[in-house]
Amino acid sequence: MPRTLHLALSAYGVGGPGQHGLWKDQRVPKNASVDIDYYIRQAQTAEAALFDAYFIVDSQFINASYPAHYLNRLEPLTLLSAVATHTRSIGLVGTASSTYNSPFNLARRFASLDHISHGRAGWNVVTSFDTGTSRNYGLDEHLDYPTRYGRAEEAVDVVRGLWDSYEDDAFPADVDRGVFLDPSKLHALDHAGEHFRVAGPLNLARSPQGQPVIFQAGVSEEGRTLAARVAEGIYAPGGTLAESQAYYRDIKDRAAALGRDPDHVVILVGAGPVVASTDKAAHRLSRDIFEADNDFDRKLGFLGRSFGSHDFTPYDLDAPFPDVAHLAERSGRTRGLEIVRQARDENLTLRQVVETVSEYTPSPFTGAPDTVADALEHWFAAGAADGYNLRFRTHEDLERFAADVVPLLQKRGVFRTEYAGDTLRANLGLPVPANRHTLARESAAR
Amino acid sequence: MPRTLHLALSAYGVGGPGQHGLWKDQRVPKNASVDIDYYIRQAQTAEAALFDAYFIVDSQFINASYPAHYLNRLEPLTLLSAVATHTRSIGLVGTASSTYNSPFNLARRFASLDHISHGRAGWNVVTSFDTGTSRNYGLDEHLDYPTRYGRAEEAVDVVRGLWDSYEDDAFPADVDRGVFLDPSKLHALDHAGEHFRVAGPLNLARSPQGQPVIFQAGVSEEGRTLAARVAEGIYAPGGTLAESQAYYRDIKDRAAALGRDPDHVVILVGAGPVVASTDKAAHRLSRDIFEADNDFDRKLGFLGRSFGSHDFTPYDLDAPFPDVAHLAERSGRTRGLEIVRQARDENLTLRQVVETVSEYTPSPFTGAPDTVADALEHWFAAGAADGYNLRFRTHEDLERFAADVVPLLQKRGVFRTEYAGDTLRANLGLPVPANRHTLARESAAR
């Protein structure tokens, strides 16, 4: 079977990254971020276009200067659970922080979603870079970067351990023998590690996928290590083709070096396609959107996100860029460190940094449908991506992509014409992990 | 308007309290506890019968000796979120522990459910009596009873504070002025208490009910104090009519003494009606079910639940009842302390205690439809209940109650013939709480 690409839809209400003025668009309901019917319609449209997954990002800290969508949004797991019963085949990937949730709760909620969706749940593991988040969870200081990543890795191990609490055939429910559970197939975890002690077992049967799919978006050294070790789906940062190829190669090599099959690490490059009838019209549209969305204050706020949502408004705009490297380090923002380096090398003021960082660069997936399909196919063939995590400005833009670009990808044989199955693992080409206790038993018997 | 009673449905898959053998019933799917379609159908049937609320209990610890439904069940919030989009008017009350969840997460998840359900969410606050639960959350020792209740009270305060982060009119979303948020209507909480420090604000607008409804099931002294102070709905333990009247009076008096309107504390007595064509047939059915469900091992396991899920199997059945008062105290189980007292006063062995505790006592709501309606009306009129939290053995039993008993209650004018509104508050007759910041502003302006 020829290799085909995967598509995820990143869902936002009134605006995702680079769409901060979207709430002003008349086509978008002002309360879209908390309107469950809006999300259900998005997911159904993506499912009709045979997307692999529907993906919800998250954050847990705001201040009044944040973009519209961040200020007011549904919690990802409750959102996806509602979407689950109105869809049938599309994967449902929710973001949850391993820093501010206990593994037992995470294991329960994602396994519950996997049951409710009949095998379509995925967990996007994040460590919460926003330093303000810690103050919503009783900590004065944000956990430092290595601690957050150590905790994330251990949390994934614990959660996976809990997901294996029951073997697949643990519940014979045999009325004649009066046996509901076979107790030899229920296993406590008894985990005691550096960050967690969790006894288990989980009070939930193995879910239809065996285990929900683990997603991650590692960019830093620690992030890449974590991604290569635990992730089955990766949200890659994008950038240029060369940058994406390098990232792709690096992650696949790291996974192989850890003894994993690189094909079982599906790398999805983040992309915001802008499609119009001609290339020229698409580029004009893209530029117009950028100008409408990005006034100086918005750009200044956006810069802050590379430093753990630091507030740059009190600084003198025309003084040299302030010494904020420690903020980027603490929140683990690779981009922040790059910015500090560039500002120092080029002797930039804060104002100059803002303009440089927020410089307009069109998405490589901007153009007429054929152009966009070309680019998507090219990056895929050139070893930059196994697929894409797409974001669209409006529902109409998603519909246009589905109507005009997806059929071209299908005609070229690089995208499916029907779902491989009704679980996320089936569509991503990922194996169902064998239960560790069943494996151990079988291995002992041999 | 004459006072009318309220009905909640307590939902279980393959068996609730006193239904431990239910999984053997051919009418019940063996996987009912994790089958979302089963729950959706239950909720829709209860909604068609105009029930106020659909209620999901929870626990977070199991061992292999637990009843079938406890072993394997969906997490309440994901479950209810899926149910929300398939119902329109019935309240959705989920259980969550204030001992093992952070207030910020609780506030988000319940507010999210309130948005998704358009104003039908309720939080049943529990402190998790099962001592084993602590070991799933990194603690060697279960938090003691007063600590758990102090934490619960503070958690409710913090969650309510977070629910008021935004005033109702915080989002003008005024395109002409370019104003999405009015920042003067967004408020940090900056809570620093004995158990929690939470800065806020919550990243979610005030939900359609202003705040989800708080439920509680306080029996002990601390539980009653908490219930009287914070609960708007109470799941009362039931027992005899006289016991229920005493409990009802006590809670209403406590609430009034705290300056609350006793009508805004809705007391629902737990009841498992058994309805058949005649009283005699109903009592025979009730007895048969009890016998089928309760072998000695089951009774021994059930006894353990009054002592924080203590395992009594290692004890000599014919020796005097062991000294386990400290276990009942630690888990705060009033029932356990009563059992210890009775065992001492009457010099009982463990075996005798098991048989005494598990003695067959039919529900006071057992009989022909008229008899059951009589009893429900009588307890309601006699100051024992504002309504009932009902559990049924099978879906067919719920349907029978809806078809045969509900119309009698309606004919007598003690139950609604249509919903008062599409929010849980509207149907329970509870006010929408004013936002504290709006109140403060208005009071300062006067």
UniProtKB/TrEMBL annotation, chains A, B:
Keyword flag Flavoprotein: yes
Luciferase-like domain ranges (all copies): 29-384
Gene Ontology MF, one: oxidoreductase activity, acting on paired donors, with incorporation or reduction of molecular oxygen
Coiled-coil regions listed in the entry: none
Binding site for FMN: D58, T95, Y149, S220
Annotated InterPro entries: Diverse_substr_monoxygenases, Luciferase-like_dom, Luciferase-like_sf, NTA_MOA
E.C. numbers: 1.14.-.-
Keyword terms: Flavoprotein, FMN, Monooxygenase, Oxidoreductase
EC category: oxidoreductase
The keyword Cytoplasm is assigned to this record: no
Pfam families (UniProt xref): Bac_luciferase (PF00296)
Protein family according to the UniProt entry: Belongs to the NtaA/SnaA/DszA monooxygenase family.
Entry protein name: Putative monooxygenase MoxC
Species per Swiss-Prot/TrEMBL record: Frankia canadensis
